[in-house]
Design goal:
22% helix, single chain, 6-stranded antiparallel β-sheet, 2 helices, alpha+beta, 3-stranded antiparallel β-sheet
Length: 290
Amino acid sequence: MIRGLYSAASGMFALERRQETLSDNLANAQTPGYKKDDTVLRAFPKLLMQRIRDFNENSNVPLAGAPNIPGQPVQIGELSNGVYVQERIPSFNQGALVQSVNPLDLAIEDQGLPTQLINGNQVKPAAFFTVQLPDGTVGYTRNGKWDLDSQGNLVTSEGYRILDVNQRPIQITDSISKEDLLISTDGQVIAYPSDPTSTRVAGQIGIAVAENPNELRRLGGNTYQAENPLPINNQGVSLHQGFIEQSNVDPGQTMTEMMMTVRGYEANQKVISVYNGSLEQLYSVGKING
């Protein structure tokens, strides 16, 4: 009976973590470039239950052809120990591209990247903007909502500086307005595109491609880090100026999954309540007989 309590409790803990993941997804449904997390539920290893046959047992039924020897283990069967949340895995599916009014909004379209065979599984690579984090390390993001800071650097909405193909910040030295910048589909940042006498290339946006994006570590929101630097490769990736990639969270489906999770949590609560009532009755009977 106590094992049943443990199994129901493990289910409640697992569903609680799943609900936290779904809540995070729903909270970031409007975050540009956000990639939802999926929870992976695993069952604890099953146990093969046995008991030691009593010396006073009078059963003459042999076990699988074995003689009925007092003290010999008797197999009871398998016991499941419940479930747990093994990990949260981001889903890097392409989000919808929505046109915006900000000329420095930029969206990545990486559907042209071919799948790779990794450990016997077909894995879809994912492309990211490279950014400079506050500690000087390189991060990766799909957040294309950009602006210019006071020093003329291209920065994300979090204030991270956008890096070029040489992993250096892209800085527009003169006091240029956002409307005078053109970003081509291959990542070239062109200043004053409508004025032939002043047109110049201010930088080349560096696009990093993760062959296996599941190995990335989420820092928070929609920024990731890799154990080893990702290669810069603009091939097979198109950039769209004036567009924002929305998150790939489906609010309707997420809310449905949240309600199903709550129902499962309540079911485990009822199981524990039933076990608790049985234990109370057992305790009462023991007190009366004692």
